Amino acid sequence: MGLFIIRRLTSAVLVMFAISVLVFLIFFATPGVDPAARIAGRSATPQIVAQIRHEFGLDRALPIRYGLMMDHLFIKQDLSSYVNIGDRVVPQIISAAPVTLSLVLGAAVIWLLVGVAGGVVAAANRGKFIDPLIMFFGIAAISVPAYWLGEVVNLITQSKLHSSIFSWVPSSGFVSLSANPGQWALHLLFPWLTLAALYAGIYARVLRAELVNALNEDYVRTARAKGLSERRILLRHALRCSLISIVSLFGLDFGALIGGAALLTEVVFGLPGVGQLTYTSLQNLDLPVIMGCVMYGAFFVVLANAVVDVLYAFLDPRVRLA
Amino acid sequence: MNRFYSMKWVRVLLATLVTGSLGLVAASSASASNTSLPYQSAHAGGTLKLMASTAGGTLDPQVNYTLQYWQLYQATYDGLVSFHKVAGAASFEVVPDLATALPKVTNGGKTYTFTLRKGIKFSNGKTVTVNDVLASFQRIFKVSNPNAGTWYSSIVGGAACVTTPATCKLTGGVVVNAATNKVTINLVAPDAEFLDQLAVPFGSILPASAPVKDAGTTPIPGTGAYEFSKYDPNHQLTMVRNPHFKVWSAAAQPQGYPNEIDMVFGSTVESEVTAVENGQGDWVFDPLPSDRLQQLSTKYANQLHVNSLTAIWYLPMNTNLAPFNNFMAREAVNYAINKTAAIALFGGSQLAQPACTILPPGFPGHVDFCYYQKGTGTTYGGPDIAKAKALVKKSGTFGQSVGIVVTNDSVNEAVGQYVQSVLNSIGYKATIKPLSANIQFNYIQNTKNKVQISLSQWYQDYPAASDFLKVLLSCQGFHPGSDNSINIAGYCNKAIDAKMNKAEALGLTNPTAANALWGQIDKQLMGTAAPWVPLFTPKQIDFVGKRVGNYQFSRQFYMYVDQLWVK
Amino acid sequence: MAGLAVFLLVVTICLLAPVYAHDIAHVNPFASNLQGTIVLHGKVVQLLQQNTQGLGLGVTPIGPTWNISHYFLGADNQGRDVFARLLYGGRSSLLIGAASALICCLAATILGLAAGYFGGPIDWVLSRIFDIIWAFPIYLLAISLSVVLLTSGLQIGFIHIGPGSLMLPILIIAAVFVPYVARPLRGIVLSLREREFIQAAIGSGASDYRILMKEILPNAAPTIIVFLPLMVAFNMLTESALSFLSIGVQPPAASWGTIINDGLGLLYTRPVVAIAPGLMIVVTAVALNILGDGARDAFDPKAKLRGSI
Fold this sequence. Notes:
The complex is a heterotrimer.
Chain A: H1 2-29, H2 35-40, H3 46-55, H4 62-75, H5 89-124, H6 130-143, H7 146-160, H8 181-215, H9 218-225, H10 230-261, H11 263-269, H12 274-284, H13 287-315, H14 318-321
Helix pairs in contact in A: 1-13, 5-6, 5-8, 5-10, 6-8, 7-8, 7-11, 8-10, 9-10, 10-12, 10-13, 11-12, 12-13
Chain B: H1 22-30, E1 47-52, H2 67-73, E2 81-83, E3 94-96, E4 104-106, E5 111-115, H3 130-142, H4 158-163, E6 174-177, E7 182-186, H5 194-199, E8 226-232, E9 236-241, E10 260-265, H6 269-277, E11 283-284, H7 290-299, E12 304-308, E13 311-316, H8 327-336, H9 339-346, E14 352-354, H10 385-395, E15 401-407, H11 410-425, E16 429-435, H12 437-443, E17 453-454, E18 456-459, H13 466-473, H14 494-509, H15 511-528, E19 532-543, E20 553-554, E21 558-559
Parallel strand pairs in B: 1-10, 1-11, 15-16, 15-17
Antiparallel strand pairs in B: 2-3, 4-5, 5-7, 6-7, 8-9, 9-10, 12-19, 13-18, 13-19, 14-19, 20-21
Helix pairs in contact in B: 8-10, 9-11, 14-15
Chain C: H1 2-15, H2 17-25, E1 37-40, E2 43-46, E3 48-50, E4 59-61, H3 82-118, H4 120-135, H5 138-152, E5 154-156, E6 159-161, H6 167-194, H7 196-203, H8 208-244, H9 256-264, H10 272-299
Antiparallel strand pairs in C: 1-2, 3-4, 5-6
Helix pairs in contact in C: 1-3, 1-10, 2-3, 3-4, 3-6, 3-8, 3-9, 3-10, 4-6, 5-6, 6-8, 7-8, 8-9, 8-10, 9-10
C-alpha cells in the first residue's frame, strides 16, 4: 500500500512537471508574443526592448528561463505578471480562489441534493412514467451548453424581466461571504444553479444506473428474501453501495472545478475566480499568470485523481497491482 | 495613438506644433484664458465609482502608456508644465504647472529655463525640490520609459542614458540650482514638441526617493489633488484626496470634487452598463456594447455624452506584399469597401462619419476630397463595386489569398468580417485572423508576420498633420522585422518624405502655407499610393450615472474624472 | 429510436441548407449584406435599421419575419439570414462533432488497446500521456493550441492545414478527449487479457496483431460503439464552447457556437440569434444522448462515459 501511494505521488509530480513544460513551450512558440516588446510599450527603441529583455531574464536560454520562472513561482513566490507589472501571481490566485470555492461549493451542494434525489426517485420508480421523465431531464441538463444557459439566465434576469419579477437580482459580480452573507448568496444564486444543472444531470443518471445494478445483486435478493421493505432495501443497502462511485466521481469533479474548470460559468457571470483569471490571462497571453493558473488547476486535478486512486486501492486490493 | 492597444488607449505624441516659431510657443500658450467656473464646494464629497473590465497595467506614471490611467494621472501627478484643465479646444494648450511660468526659451530653441514653484508638497508630506526634478528626469531613463529613446533622448546626455540607464546623470542636460529654484534643460537640437512631451504623465515630477525601477502596483507619491492609496489590478484602484494639496493654479491642477475615486475592475462590460443604469456605478470605461446603444440613447439620453474626436479607423494595406504591392489592387479595395456599412457596425451614423482623407475633418491641413467612390463630389457617395472588380482583374491579382488581421472584440471583428466579405466579392480569397487586442497592434506592425491587410485605429494627440502623415506613412516609421514599426502599410517614398520635411519646416514660419502643403500631401498619398482604406472618424461616448454632474471633456485626456460631482 | 429519428431529422435539415439558402430564401449566408433591404408587408425595409429615437445611437438588425421564405429568424449584425446560417452552422457543428468523435475513438482505441495489451513501458508512457492531457484543463489546452494554430496553421510533413480550416477544431477536440475513451478501454483490455480465452490464444503462439484484432477488439467494440454517439454530442458541446471563446470555427463559416457568439453581441436587441442555435445544440445533444443510452442498453450496459462541459 505504501509503495502504491509513493508510486502514485511520483507520477502525479511527473505529470505536473510535464504540464508546466508544455505550457511554457506552447507560449514561447506563439507568434507575435514577445513579452519584452509588450512590456516596453509602443514606440520603444530597440535598446529599450533589449534592456527590458535582459531585466526580465528573457534573453536567457529557454531551460534557464523555465527554471527561473519555476523558482519565482514556487520558491520565491514573487513571480509577477507581464501585463500588470509588479502584480504578483501567487496573491492573485489566492484572492481568486475563494470566489471559485464559493461558486463550486454552493453548486456542489445543489447538484448533490438534486442529483442524488433524482437518481433515487428514478430508481425507486423504475417502470413508471416518472423514471424516464427524470432521466430525460438529466439528459437535457447534460446537453445544454453551460455558457449558453448562463447567458440566457442573464438575459432573463438582467434584461427582459429585470424590471418585473427579477428586480431583486443584483448585477453580476461577487460579494465576499465575510462582507455580506446575504448578498454573497444572492449574487451566486444563478451561477450556482447554472453550474449545478449539468452535474445534477450526470449524477442522477449515474446513480440511477448504479442503483439499478445494485438492486440486481445477490445481497439485495437476500435482503428481499428476508422480507425487508423495498424502500429500506433501496436506501439502506443499494444506495450505500452505489454512493461509492458517486463519491469518487464527486472527488474528480470537485477537484477539476476548484482548479478552474468552471471557467465559462465564471466568465459569463463575471465572477472574478480562478477560471476568469485564467481566461483573462489567456486573452492577454500573460505567461506568468497562465502558468500559475495552470499549475494551480493541474494540482487539484492531479490531487483529486491520486486521492481517488488511492481510495480505490484501499477498497479494492486488486487495483494496487495494476 | 492607437485606441485598442492593450485594450486601452495608447497614445503617441509625435506631433509638431504648427502654431508658430519656438519663441511663439510660449507666448501663444500663455494667452490661454481660464474659462472654467469657480470651485463649487457644495458639490464636494462622496465616492465616485468608475468601472473598467480590466486594469491598465503598471501604475508607474513614467512607464504606463494607456489612456485608462493617463486620464487618472491628471488628478494625481504634475509636470513642470501640463495641459490646460478646461473643456473644449483650449484643453490642448500647455500651461505652467509646477513651474511658475512657461519656460524662457533661449539659445536658438535649445535651452529651456523653468523656475520651480515654492512650497508645493508631495502626498507623502515632503516638499518638492529641484533635486526631485532632476531625479525624475533621470528616472525616465532608469525605468526604461517607452519613449526614452525617441523623445527624451533629445536632452543633452539623454542618448548616453538610453544605452546605460543605470548610470544616467544627464550632466549638462538638466541643470538645477537649489538656491534660485531654477531648472535649466538643454537640448541637442531645437524640438518643437518638447513642451508637449513634458506635459504628458511621463514628465511627472516624482520624489527623488521613488524606486528606480518600474514601481508596478506600488503607488508613487505625487503632487496632484488626489493620491493613489491602493492598487490591486484584479479588484480596484483607489484614489483619495492628497492631504497636502493646495491649489496653486486651477488651470493646471484644479481642486477635485469627490472625496474618493475608485476604479473597479473585473466585471463584464454588459454588467458595467447595467450597474450604471441601476445607479450602482458612475461611469463605464470600456466601449459600450452595440446592442445596448439603442436602449441607452432612448432611456438614458441625458446620461450619455457624445464628443467628436479627431481620429480615424482605417485599413492599412501592406504595400510590400502581394496583392497589395499593386497600386490597382489597393485602389480596388478602396472602391469596394462601403464606409457607411462599416459605420453601421460601429453603432450607426450618429457615432461616426465616413472618411476619405487621411487627415480627419476639422484637422489642420485637412482638405475635403473623396477619391474612390461612386460619385464625383468631395463627400462620400458609396462604393463602386464594378470598378473595383475591373481593377482586380486588370491588376492580375484576381484569385489571390488575403489575410485580414483584426482584434477579437465584437466591433473590430464585425468590421473584419465585412471586409472579408467584400474582398471575397471582388475576387480575392479572404480569411480573417482575430487576435487578442493585446497582441494585434504589434503583430500587424511586424513585417515578419506577413500581414496583408489589417484594421487599425489612430487617435490624434495634438492638432498637427504630421501626427498622422509623418508618423504613419513616412520612411522613419517603417522598421522591417520589428514589432514597433508604426508605418503599418510599410509605405516609404523618399519624395513624399522630403515634402513632409518641407511642410514641417515651413510650419515654424508659415503655418497656413504648411497646412496647405500637408493637404496636398494627403491628396497625393491617397491619389497616387492609396496605402490605406480610410473608414470613418469615430466619436467618443461616455455613459455616466444619474447622480453625476459637471461632465467636462478634454480633447487631450477626455473626461475629467476628478471634476465630476456625485453630490 | 426517438433519439435516432430526431438526430437524423436534424442531420437531414442541415444537409439541405444549400437548397434552402439557394432555392427558398435566395440568400448568401456567408456574405455581409449591411446595406441590404427586404420587402416586408409590402414595404421595403432595411436589414440593418438605424435607431432614430433619442440620441439616435445604435443599429439593430431586422428581427424574425416568421416567414420561411426570407429572414425567418431575422438577420445578424452583418445582415445575413440567421435561419440559413443556422442550417449551415449545423453542418459544421455536426461535422466537427462526428469527425472529431471518430478520430478520437480511433486514436483512443489504438492507444487504449496498446496500453492495456502490451503493458510494461508502453503502458506506462501512454498512461502518463493520458494523465497529462487529463489534468491539463481542457479549455486551456484547446485555447493554447488554437491560439498557436489559428495564427500560423499546422504543418506536419507534407500536410498543411490552413489557419481557417475546419480540421483544426476537429483535431484539437479529438486530441483533448482521447484519454476519456482510451482510459476505460485500457481497463477493459486489462481485464480481458486475464481471461482464459486470451491467455489460451497467447499460449497457442498467435501473433499480437492477430490477438488484438480477432480476440480483443471484438470484445472491446461494444464499448466503443456506445461511446461514439455520446462523444459526438460531447464534442459538439465542446466545439460550441470553443467557438464561444472565438477560437473554434472561423468566419464567415458558421457553426452553432459561432452563431451564439455572434448573437451575444445582439443579446439585448435580438436574443433569438443566440437562443436559436443554443436550442439546436440542446435538441441534437439530447437526441444523441438518448441514442447513446439505447446503444448502451443494446450492446454494453456497463459502459460509462462522462466529462464536464
